[in-house]
Amino acid sequence: MEKWARIKYTPNLPLGENGERVTASQKHIELSCEAACEGMVLLKNDRNVLPIRKGTRVALFGKGVFDYVKGGGGSGDVTVPYIRNLYEGLSQYTSDISIYDKSVRFYQEYVADQYRLGIAPGMIKEPALPEDILADAAAYADTAIIAISRFSGEGWDRKVAGVDREIKCEAKDLVEQGNKIFDHGDFYLTNAEKKMVKMVKENFSSVIVVMNVGGVVDTTWFKKDDQISSVLMAWQGGIEGGLAAARILLGKVNPSGKLSDTFAARLEDYPSTEGFHEDDDYVDYTEDIYVGYRYFETIPGAKEKVNYPFGYGLSYTTFLLEDYKAEPFVASAADEVGKSDSDLADAIVASVTVTNIGKIPGKEVVQLYYSAPQGKLGKPAKVLGGYAKTRLLQPGESQRVTIALYMEDMASYDDLGKVKKAAWLLEKGEYHFFLGTSVRDTRLLDYTYELSKNIIVEQVSNKLVPTSLPKRMLADGTYEELPQTEPVDTYATIFPRPKNWKETIEHDVLKTPVVRPQDRFQLFLPPKEGDPKKFIEVAECKVTLEDFIAQLSNEQLASLLGGQPNVGMANTFGYGNLPEVGVPNAQTCDGPAGVRIAPEVGVVTTAFPCSTLLACTWNEDICYEVGVAGGEEAKECNFGAWLTPAVNIHRSPLCGRNFEYYSEDPFLAGKQAAAMVRGIQSNNIIATPKHFALNNKESNRKGSDSRASERAIREIYLKAFEIIVKEQSPGASCLQYNIVNGQRSSESHDLLTGILRDEWGFEGVVVSDWWGFGEHYKEVLAGNDIKMGCGYTEQLLEAIDKKALKRKDLEKRQSESSRCFSNSTKLKAA
Fold it and tell me: The whole model's pTM is what?
């Protein structure tokens, strides 16, 4: 009853020990800092300049020293009690180092002035560095630290040089500000930043760079420069990102992060760059399954374009990997139930001994890759199949690391019928396995898995088939033409549209229902004879869900299929809100970096590191702990659902929302996010993986068509969601705005019912993204349970009158959401 009572009274009561709040508590803030330390990646450390030795005098340069970006904008933003920048982090250790003060004051005053003008963090122009300050700093110190920061956010994509046309987006002020600052696009240094870096290099023998960014940026300027000694990819580290970076720079923490993306030499080296801003109305995913390292490790000539490979990251200590082993593993008979083919071995178990042969404690990440035969389908040269992070190993200490890979997880999808149409299959031939510490630093294991025939792992049916994608890339770098079909008119509707309907945001038309304050007190009134059945009786198994729904009128059912008004501290609306039958208005909250509450409410929460950083921890335990902590804050602030994690793929560095997402690799993204879901739901808070699916571009996000092959969709863009659904049974799934192969995702029966529910067994509630362009009645038919931020009750009732909908369609959608809410106290826990 605790959950229900909290919904009834909407309190903000402390849940911590001794009556203390958990929201933005010191414990959670320390966890945020710990997670940030775990995911920051040391890219370069020539001459072992890092860690900075005790007694060193340092000078700080770059507006990023104070212009610290804790995370991206939009749903990923968080209202926090404070933010600790790099200078403030280093200032905690003045007993270890001395900091030159004049450059500090210069940047502090400059950044403060820019903030007062209303310029967003990360969007401030680099100021000209006064020569007298530089000369004085060089006389004071021989070690310089340069900080570079970047910002991006929801509703707009990163700037790229050479695109002069106006791009449709929802944050024109930020785009215009970026146009003023970034001479070559924000992937590269600005001219002002280049000048500052050049001046610093000319005056200091040791130069350290700290990158405070949310996504992939140019690394060529420091990789090939011997004058830059060390580089820390600090990402966007949340509330304590500056302190976390300081701890690593000073050796208080040994870095153990590994890249979750490939860092190429140039933006143009990513195949997705070409065509990203070609048109606002569509994006062709012509690189197909060759995304990230799958491209750079496979396509001829692409390897040489990589500066830092996927999985790469340095440490202050040295690890020795030895005694590599690999062997087949056959599960027990109980585990074999449901296997699709008796000829399919269950798994390979790979293991290696990791020893810290250095002088300080540290952690290492062991990564297992596999290589499948090219066959008729074509495959990437390597694919991540498993990983494990060691515990903190003391000097001389060893740990045996074991990783299992199920053979069926190596299956490829045949969309065109080259082997067996619409089937997940393993092609005959040899499968090889590699174990190491990055996609490049691996050893071929002495075990080969050989198939003498093709094995069908799962037979499904074609879904989300493209109609307008002209071609796709093959493993040799050439392209094959794809069949073109006549697109279906998915914009057809039984209702008249305004002439400018594509430009009309629905919440300008739809009216959010008003909550009567006194209705809240009807939720838990004792039932009287003749009263309607109450929802709490369903949760208590006194009334069947079918009987409860059967008593509802069409109007009541239609109302429940739309989002409900904000109450309490919410700003992203609620689910439910039918008090006459005891259905509460359970509130939702953003977002991927922490519980987002509007500043005017006066409640601050913990800002955790951006999801890209969390992916770079390669540590499911830390993601689980962040999920637990965030779930506790959501619960204490009386939210029923947390709209996280966001698990779209880093297809292109240009996506403005990559900071919310984990990786270019769906397996890594899925496993890390699944751990977070497990943590969230241990609090009986509904986790909501989003944005389902192919949300890889923010420009014109409500009207852009993502055109991809069915194989790429299934193997790359849906795989992380599939892992989460099958491993952690999330209570909800949030859709995306865009169109997929000509059909709006919220209206796609293939996506919502065919794949999500029928193939994967999803049993939660599906919600649209807020204020999308989908027709509500078509969303109901497709399998969308709740239209957010509010529904269109009148349209649903009219659709029933026009025979476009049946009452049973509404009942089906309501049964999905009611089952989710009534079972919310039984969600998977730790």
Answer: 0.94
pLDDT exceeds 80 at position 490: no
Instruction: Tokens for 340, please give them.
Output: 């699709």
DSSP per-residue string spanning 470-483: -EEE-TTS-EEE--
- Give the span between the Cα atoms of 328 and 406, in whole angstroms: 10
Give me 593's structure tokens.
Answer: 């970096």
Q: How much is the CA Rg of the chain, to the nearest whole Å?
A: 27
Q: What architecture (CATH level 2) is domain 535-826?
A: Alpha-Beta Barrel (3.20)
Structure-token pair, residue 46: 């020539």
Output the CATH code of domain 293-476.
2.60.40.10
Residue 9 is predicted with a pLDDT of 54
Domain segments of the chain as ranges: 42-256, 293-476, 535-826
Nearest to 379 by CA among 342, 312, 428, 345: 428
CB 673 within 8 A of CB 690: no
Half-sphere exposure (Cβ direction) of 715: Cα atoms closer than 13 Å: 27
- Angle at the Cα of 336 from the Cα atoms of 331 and 339, rounded to 5 degrees: 125
For the CA atoms of 790, 792, 793, 795, the dihedral, rounded to the nearest 10 degrees, stands at -170
648-697 tens-digit pLDDT: 999 999 999 999 999 999 999 999 999 999 999 999 999 999 999 999 88
What is the per-residue pLDDT across 53-68, written as a single tens digit (0 to 9) for each? 999 999 999 999 999 9
- Residue 233 structure tokens: 């990819």
For residue 504, what pLDDT band results from cuts at 50, 70 and 90? Answer: very low
Task: Name 495's Cβ contacts closer than 8 Å, sequence gap at least 6.
Answer: 775, 795, 798
The set of catalytic residues is: 769
Q: Under DSSP, is residue 757 helix (H, G, I), strand (E, B) or coil?
A: helix
Burial status of residue 17 (CB atoms within 10 A of its CB: 0-12, 13-18, 19 or more): exposed
What local confidence, expressed as pLDDT, does residue 165 receive?
67
Task: For residue 351, give every residue at least 6 positions away whose Cβ sits within 8 Å of its Cβ, in sequence order, or none.
Answer: 323, 324, 325, 326, 400, 401, 402, 403
What is the mean predicted confidence (pLDDT) over 749-774? 96
How big is the CA angle at 8 (ends 3 and 10), to the nearest 5 degrees?
85
Q: What is the pLDDT of residues 376-412, one digit of tens each?
A: 999 999 999 999 999 999 999 999 999 999 999 999 9
- Token pair belonging to 476: 């040799």
Higher pLDDT, 818 or 319: 319
298-299-301 Cα angle (round to 5): 115
pLDDT > 90? residue 336? no
Name residue, tokens 């929302």.
657
d(CA 355, CA 692): 41
Class at the top of the CATH hierarchy for domain 42-256: alpha beta
Q: In this structure, which amino acid lies at residue 326?
A: A
Q: What is the pLDDT of residues 213-244, one digit of tens each?
A: 999 999 999 999 999 999 999 999 999 999 99
Residue type present at position 272 = S
- Residue showing tokens 């993306």: 261
> Helix, strand, or coil here: 73?
strand
> Which residue matches tokens 């049964």?
815
Dihedral angle, C-alpha 473, 474, 480, 486, nearest 10 °: -60
Find the helix or strand (DSSP H, E) in which 586 lies.
strand 583-589
692 bridge partner residues: 735
The torsion angles phi and psi of 91, rounded to 5 degrees, stand at -65, -15
